[in-house]
Specification:
707 residues, alpha+beta, ABC transporter involved in vitamin B12 uptake, BtuC, Neuraminidase, 4-stranded antiparallel beta sheet, elongated
Length: 707
């Protein structure tokens, strides 16, 4: 290795570029900018204003924050549903007036004043919801009109009845406690906002109505086509916003024991700015209550802080305008360019120097020398299949294979001319294996480990494992479960080829060549899934050894076969038994003579081997070129290799014509024939094996001959 290559290896293998892409791909990164803004805002004003963090100052500020947060929560729900509510300020003011007039003028109990306030908000919200949801009027214009009307009505009422409110002698301990009291050091408005925030967050993320709101905000037409009552959902979001503004109005009424011309003035701008600054999208369908609360804190701390620093209303309005403009710009630009940014930084190739290999060229005289024998294989299901990645046979000699349409097809013995869809799973069924009870297990790409009973009942066995504590990526999820095999005790050993990419993104994984593949085990006794080995370059085929004390698994992009020991002094460890092959290994299965069959899905090329030593080039290639122009592993030529437990190559089979089986991803020996599958093929091949045991089957080898 040259000095330049050592530098490249250090730069690309030890500097975690991929972490940036992993972080940006997370949904919670949308909270990063508002959270940073929140910390900076609080720290700045906390250092500039004397006594900012004193208990009394915080209590007074949090009362306002609680009231303001209620309004923001309601507006956030409307925005998540794809709307906007400019009438919250007038609803807030009218609800506050309803509360104080009921309590001070009519001298009714506090609960009646609360009911009057909430009733006012309910009516106003229902009017907005009906006009926008059912009559389908424009939200911006409609709520602007109702805001103007509501504000005018409030001003008329304040002028007419303000003096009676001020001169009233009505009083109540409950009223005073709601306005000035605390519970466990927290004011009633803060407690109310926290409780409501938790309830709304759970409703949005865990309930059907919440999902409907997000679906409507994301796309009303799609939501309608999915059977969601769009108009009703929109109506309810405005009713909820009205109730939230009304609750906040009642709380400010108890705190101030009155209502004046400035009540709720400009509140709609403050609330809208808070919701957007927090990271909620004006386009709908993207955001959360937590974001709204962060925005509420930012806006309230900033406006109050500027006032306490001696700046006037004009400065406040200007700052709010700038905040709103910046937040909208960031929201629109990030939403539009997020995938572009991810495409620029997510693929982070590493340096790898492949070992020298023996030639597989015909006539080279090496153990890996390919031939043209597979071209003579008889086709099964020619033109009926698309992507039979793995093949397997049952005790009645029926043939099964998966297709890229999410189906498992069964061909009936003895001539395999008749077929049926045995089961529809979805995803892409890859590796297949029969257990002792005759259930067919399959690794389904991007979905997990599944079982199909003889009665065709489909059942999910596992879709996740334990998450690594230090991992940024959610490695609990099975991204690319690939192949499996079953031990005598029923445990299922299977591979998850990569933790960073789904099955259809295998080309990206090959270009990156990062060691993110792993070997896992599923225990049917308790339903648990554990990771046994991690840090391999695209783990693939799995096969139990004939003595059931160990298993073989493939590391495709490194062109190696490993043996993992289940019993004996080496239990829990793995060792490489074949390295530096000229082909990329895929599935592995038992052979009748005590050896093993291995598929080559493709062959190494000098150009791709060279590119692995230049990660910078591969990164630029993935960023600048369309995928059709990428350089990635050659999968147009492959074959089948037979090897012993010691790793000795004893036979090779190929299709040099490129017509029937140029790429091979699986093979299965059964009664003297080799059945061949390929993820790019339109058939299953049936090849006669000279000298093979015509009575040997995989089922008998694993589970014994039935009596």
């Amino acid at each position: 290795m040259t000095f330049r290559e050592r530098l490249q290896a250090w730069r690309y293998n030890f500097v975690p570029d991929h972490v940036i892409g992993e972080i940006l791909s997370k949904r919670w990164t949308d909270n990063a900018i508002p959270f940073i803004a929140l910390v900076v805002t609080v720290a700045t004003f906390g250092s500039l204003i004397p006594g900012f963090f004193k208990l009394y100052s915080l209590q007074e500020s949090t009362r306002q924050l609680g009231e303001f947060s209620l309004v923001v929560i309601g507006l956030t729900v409307v925005m998540l549903g794809g709307g906007i509510d400019l009438a919250v300020g007038s609803i807030f003011a009218l609800s506050a007036f309803a509360a104080v007039s009921t309590f001070f003028i009519l001298e009714q109990p506090v609960w009646v004043a609360l009911a009057a306030s909430l009733g006012t908000g309910l009516i106003c919200g229902a009017i907005n919801g009906y006009l926008i949801g059912f009559l389908r009027l424009r939200a911006f214009i409609t709520t602007l009109v109702t805001f103007i009307i509501g504000r005018a009505l409030y001003d008329i009422l304040v002028v007419a009845y303000g003096s009676q409110i001020q001169m009233s002698m009505a009083s109540s301990d409950t009223w005073d406690f709601i306005g000035d009291g605390t519970v466990l050091g927290l004011s009633v408005p803060v407690l109310s906002a926290l409780i409501l925030a938790v309830i709304v967050h759970i409703a949005l993320t865990r309930s059907r109505p919440g999902w409907h709101v997000l679906a409507v905000g994301g796309s009303r037409r799609s939501a309608h086509n999915a059977g969601i009552r769009v108009r009703q959902t929109v109506f309810l979001t405005y009713v909820f916003s009205g109730l939230c503004a009304a609750a906040a109005g009642f709380l400010i009424a108890t705190r101030l024991s009155g209502a004046g011309p400035g009540t709720g003035l400009g509140l709609e701008i403050l609330a809208l700015t808070a919701a957007v600054v927090g990271g909620n999208s004006l386009g709908g369908g993207r955001g959360s209550v937590v974001k709204g609360l962060m925005g509420a804190v930012i806006v309230l701390v900033m406006t109050n802080g500027l006032i306490r620093l001696g700046y006037g209303t004009g400065t406040n309005q200007m700052v709010l305008g700038i905040l709103l403009a910046v937040a909208v710009t960031i929201d629109i630009r990030w939403l539009k360019n997020r995938h572009k940014v991810l495409n620029e930084v997510y693929v982070a190739p590493v340096y790898l120097r492949m070992g020298e290999t023996q030639s597989a060229v015909p006539g080279s005289g090496t153990p890996f020398e390919l031939n043209n024998r597979l071209s003579a294989a008889d086709p099964i299901g020619l033109g009926e299949l698309e992507g039979p990645e793995d093949v397997i046979l049952d005790r009645e000699d029926n043939l099964y294979c998966g297709t890229r349409h999410g189906e498992i097809v069964r061909f009936f013995a003895p001539d395999y001319s008749r077929s049926e869809v045995f089961a529809h799973i979805g995803g892409f069924p890859l590796g297949l294996a029969f257990d002792k009870s005759g259930n067919l297990l399959s690794c389904v790409g991007a979905m997990g480990l599944y079982s199909i009973s003889p009665q065709r009942e489909v059942r999910k066995l596992s879709a996740e494992t334990r998450r690594t504590f230090t991992s940024v990526v959610d490695d609990a999820v099975l991204r690319d479960p690939n192949d499996l095999d079953i031990a005598p005790d029923g445990k299922v050993y299977f591979t998850d080829s990569t933790k960073r990419y789904d099955a259809y993104d295998w080309a990206l994984d090959s270009i990156e060549n990062r060691a993110t593949g792993r070997l896992l085990v599923y225990d049917p006794k308790d339903g648990s899934t554990r990771t046994l080995l991690d840090g391999y370059r695209y783990t693939n085929g799995v096969c139990m050894a004939h003595d059931n004390k160990s298993l073989f698994f493939c590391e495709s992009w490194a062109c190696r076969i490993h043996r993992y020991w289940l019993e004996g002094p080496k239990a829990g460890t793995a060792e490489c038994v074949i390295r530096d092959m000229p082909g990329y290994p895929d599935n592995v299965n038992r052979a009748s003579d005590g050896s093993y069959w291995m598929a080559w899905l493709g062959m190494r090329t000098p150009s791709f081997d060279l590119s692995l030593r230049h990660p910078g080039m591969r990164k630029r290639m993935a960023r600048r070129l369309p995928q059709d122009d990428w350089l990635f592993p050659n999968i147009n030529t492959g074959g089948v290799v037979k090897f012993t437990e010691a790793g000795e190559i004893v036979a090779t089979l190929g299709d040099l014509s490129g017509q029937a089986h140029p790429s091979v991803t699986s093979m299965r020996e059964h009664k003297g024939y080799l059945y061949i599958g390929g993820i790019l093929n339109n058939r299953v091949g049936r090849y006669r094996i000279e000298g093979a045991d015509t009575g040997w089957t995989g089922n008998d080898s694993y589970w014994g001959v039935r009596s």
